[in-house]
Amino acid sequence: MTKRKVTLQDFANDSTLAERARRSRAVARALDESADRLPHARTFTSVEFESFVTQLTPKRFELLRLAVKRRRSIADLATASHRDQSAVSRDVAKLQALGLVKVDIVVNPGHGQMKMVTPVATRIAIDVSL
User: Fold this and answer.
1) Residues 92/53, Cβ–Cβ less than 8 Å
2) What does each of the 130 residues of the chain score in pLDDT, given as a tens digit?
3) Which listed CATH number (3.30.70.20, 1.10.10.10, 3.40.109.40, 1.10.260.40) goes with 44-124?
């Protein structure tokens, strides 16, 4: 395996790297300015939080954990979680509605299209003040 440095040109050529750099700069600016809220962070009211917690079932959390490892199709998530594909599809739709995953439709050569699931974050932090 060869090691290679990541250059500025890599960020210019790769949309994922460019987006990550853009978001990182926005967070760094907010930290420098001692902003009250950080960009790309989500804040819930108590009612929204209760709904969020009740909708994040153990099976949905497992799908989220599997998706964090790598971008996966719904069929792949169903196989990895030993669940029916239609049930996984419904749960992925709920995770998408909660804003935890992004679903992209991609061409599956010779088989039409498939939905690829990507988490929007690799870390979720819950800070509760009573």
Assistant:
1) no
2) 677 787 878 777 888 778 888 888 888 888 888 877 777 776 655 557 777 778 889 999 999 999 988 889 999 999 999 999 999 999 999 999 888 889 999 988 888 899 999 888 777 777 666 6
3) 1.10.10.10
